[in-house]
Design a protein that fits this description.
Radius of gyration: 24 Å
Largest sheet: none
Distance between the termini: 46 Å
Strand content: under 5%
Number of strands: 0
Order of helices and strands: HHHH
Helix content: 55-70%
Length: 79
């Protein structure tokens, strides 16, 4: 299934640049838009779970942590 994307509120100068670039590459502005998005996102790597977990640990350094087993026990006791 192919999706579509609508981009609103673009600066007229940016649209003109896109159209000129598309003309240089011999394709439509829409095709150029797709090519730019594909190029930008193909080269971007997604962080691994380990990297995300390490970043989260950095964000929560020094905060009081409640072990999961304590939370589970409290939940059982409340029933």
């Amino acid at each position: 299934m192919v999706g579509s994307l609508h981009v609103r509120n673009l600066d007229e100068d940016l649209i003109a640049k896109l159209k000129r670039r598309a003309a240089r590459h011999g394709r439509s502005a829409e095709a150029e838009h797709r090519a730019i998005l594909k190029l930008a996102l193909e080269t971007e790597s997604e962080p691994s779970f380990d990297d995300l977990a390490a970043a989260l640990r950095q964000l929560t350094v020094g905060r009081k942590q409640t072990p999961a087993e304590v939370l589970q026990r409290q939940g059982r006791d409340e029933r």
